[in-house]
Amino acid sequence: MLLGAAGLVAGASPASAASSDLCAQTGYNAGFRGDGLVTAVAVALAESSCNPSATNVQNNTPPSRDRGLWQINDYWHPEVDDACAYDAQCNANAAFEISAGGTNWQPWSTYTAGAHQRHMDEARAAVDRLGHHEPGPGPLTYPAESGRVVSARSADGRLEVFAAGADGIHHAWQNTVNGSWSAWEALGGPGGAELAIGPNADGRLELFAINNDTFYHRYQLQPSGGWSGWESFGGGGKDIAVGANGDGRLEVFASGPVGVFHRYQSAPNGGWSEWESAGGGPADSRIEMEKSLDGRLEVFALNGDAFRHLYQTAVSGGWSAWEDFGGGGRDLTVDHNQDGRLEVFASGPVGVFHKYQTGASGWSGWEPTGGPADSQLTSERSPDGRVEVFAVNATTAQHIWQSGVNAPYGQWGTFGGGGTEIAAAANADGRIEVFGTSSAGVFHKWQTGFTTWSEWAWVNGTAGPAVN
């Protein structure tokens, strides 16, 4: 991984009670609490066997070193010098900051691949010995971007990608974690659809597809396994978004000509409620969903005339009334800063604007960033926590990124030619992978370093579906 690049340190032996106690104590001192502390200890056990002197250089791209208890990488996190990385408490403090207080372990490949799970019992025992296994937050599951192409990681860390053509949905997946891709397979389903994907509480991905006439979903039969057939999920509409509640229940929002509706699982991994009105919302809007640092889902909906915002009033709870969020536009993307503050980008006829949380609930005004007019948008976080935004219209693709963690953005840079849709996802090792579509098919491009990228290429060397 890119914080602890190879995951498990080569030759690491099972940790002793004393070493896991070290991770529990330093993790607690750093600020991890409750279930978040248990997860932090389990990740450190998987990374270093809780050895503060552990070093790994195997399989790191670019060549670099993973250091200390939580294997902080010297390339992706040069702000953590060796003196800090090999000091147990300083390493724990850095892990607490990088993981946004234990809510985001996605940069650690041992977490995304589930390698920490076999250390959970040992981690709980260490936290219990410490006397601090009180209730507390666990890691948050952030929603994936929705659109005509979507990508998410299976429970074993492999990316899967779905693209919506006129003839239905097409699917490809990584053969190995961070590795090569399968050939495309045709799945049928709604033609010309908008897609959304989310993980069930047990790790099974669930895919949703809507067009003007139909709404279907399909789901993995087991984590990282095969998929069900298509099942009806309701009538047609414009766009959809899906996210996981704090208790693990998926919740789906869909827009149509009379506003926005939602439907939610009655229990984690379980059946679904009936459709309910979300209290209005912009008709035929583009929808995206994000998660606040405290675990509440937030929904953003944009059409050509209006931009509105809806949020949970409690974790896994009810919803606010819609609030005005700005004027209309073409498309939007929402992401979270390293410190948990949400950031929203929206495109329109004069370029791309953004708006960001200034605190727990306050927002800045809209600020212009430049960028392509009337573009499709997506965003993802680099391994060091910086937000990167990608935009494509019919003539150009461009990207913009934060100059530092939680920091302002630089200037837009060229990212390729024009297209019809764009989506970004993070590999298990933290590298961003971007999928771009056109009438010719589906391309992808991936990070090779902080600011370096591969060339655009077909997924598995084949075009895949045309996305018009």
Write the layout of secondary structure elements.
Layout (H helix, E strand, L loop, with lengths): L16 H14 L3 H15 L6 E2 L9 E2 L4 E2 L8 H4 L2 H11 L10 H4 L7 H11 L18 E5 L5 E7 L2 E6 L11 E4 L5 E6 L5 E6 L3 E6 L11 E5 L3 E6 L5 E7 L2 E6 L11 E5 L5 E6 L5 E6 L3 E6 L11 E5 L3 E6 L5 E7 L2 E6 L10 E4 L5 E6 L5 E6 L3 E6 L11 E5 L3 E6 L5 E7 L2 E6 L10 E2 L10
Antiparallel strand pairs: 1-2, 2-3, 4-5, 5-6, 6-7, 8-9, 9-10, 10-11, 12-13, 13-14, 14-15, 16-17, 17-18, 18-19, 20-21, 21-22, 22-23, 24-25, 25-26, 26-27, 28-29, 29-30, 30-31
Helix pairs in contact: 1-2, 1-4, 1-6, 2-6
User: Globular, elongated, flat, extended or rod-shaped: what is the shape?
Assistant: globular
Structural class: mainly beta
Q: Number of helical segments?
A: 6
Largest sheet: 4 strands, antiparallel
What percentage of the residues does DSSP assign to strands (E)? 35-45%
Report, as a whole number of angstroms, the end-to-end distance.
Answer: 35 Å
The overall pLDDT average reads: 93
**Uncertain spans:** 1-15
How many runs of DSSP E, i.e. beta strands?
Answer: 31
